[in-house]
Amino acid sequence: MMNHWMILFLFLLSFQSKGQQKPIVPEVSIEYRVNDTLEIQVNLIQDQKTSAYYYHTFLATDICNDKVCLPIQVELFWNLMGEYDHFSIPQGQVFTKFDHQYFDQTDYDLLQEILLDTLSPIRDYAVEEFLDKKEQKYSVELDAITRPTLKVFSNVTVPGALYTVYALWHIVNGNIKQLIRNQLDVVYKQHQFADFFATSNNASYQEYYLEKLTGDQVVAAEPILVRLLFSHDDYIPHYAWRKLGAAYYADPERYNNLLKDLEKLKPHLQLVVLRSLSRPNLRTKEILMDKAQSKTLLQNQKELIYKLLNYEK
Predict the structure, then answer these.
(1) Which phi and psi angles does 244 have, rounded to 5°?
(2) Using one digit for the tens of pLDDT, what is the confidence trace for 63-82?
């Protein structure tokens, strides 16, 4: 449960302004209540450089309760599934840690790694539980004493920036995920995100696309479905293969091009493909005879090829 320290840190995040150089889709905006004292606006935007869509908010805040770090400015981004994606520091701005030391690139990389970790201990502990109450650390900038982070928790925060990391983690991994996910069905249709999801490298997007693909859309979507057979995810290629359906498996004019790239499929999908195909034509057999000579195929795959060559189904 969030305690008075967490409420204080998040209350400090009350100042916000628009992010820079990001065209906002104004009709999609979410009021995100972080707690009883803080509510921020999260907007759907499209990144001008990559054309990717994100939910975005900009925060400018004095985040440290003991003033040992300077105020921060940061842009936060979530994907369309509601998962935290990345942060961006506006040009000319910098994060600081204990005694106003600047973050270096290693610190930023570690912060990103921590924010992506939805199972971080930050989820379950109050911030003061991370502090070593037996030790003291002197701040030259403030001429004051503060508490260091317990060594056992040193790997769950950026050294010297516990308050910053703790508050940001709870913001990006709070109930914003569910709020964004609740919008997805409507946003997906209104903004015609089918192609964006289908061509993304994000397996969650690919899965959502396949879930929403209806039977009467399969033929038109066949090139996309074939491309998804080569997804790096373990599950998506099987899902796409099932969507293609029996009509595809029985038409060599449609599946012959796929057979040319058989070795590029994941090994377990190669077996599924070879077991499913039927009615091979002359061109199919030419392709399969060539594949049978390959040293990269396993013996059970070659046995299936020989059955197809003799059309034993």
Answers:
(1) -60, -40
(2) 655 555 567 789 999 999 99
In this structure, the answer to whether residues 114 and 25 fall within a common structural domain is: yes
Q: Tell me if residue 95 falls in helix, strand or coil.
A: coil
**Which of 130, 156, 177 represents a domain boundary (last residue)?**
177
Domain co-membership, 64 together with 109: yes
Domain residues for the domain of 271 are 213-309
Q: Is residue 296 part of a domain?
A: yes
**3-state secondary structure at position 26:** strand
Assign 225 to helix, strand or coil. Answer: helix
What's the token pair of residue 107? 């610190």
Sign of CA dihedral 101, 105, 106, 111: positive
The Cα–Cα gap between 271 and 12 comes to 57
**Residues 256-278 pLDDT 10s:** 999 999 999 998 999 999 999 99
Q: How many CB atoms lie within 10 A of CB 234?
A: 11
Tell me how many domains the chain contains.
Answer: 2
Asked if residue 134 has pLDDT above 80, the reply is no
- pLDDT mean over 224-231: 97
Mean of the pLDDT values across residues 3-19? 46
Q: In whole angstroms, give the CA distance from residue 13 to residue 29.
A: 19
Whether residue 98 is contained in a domain is answered as: yes
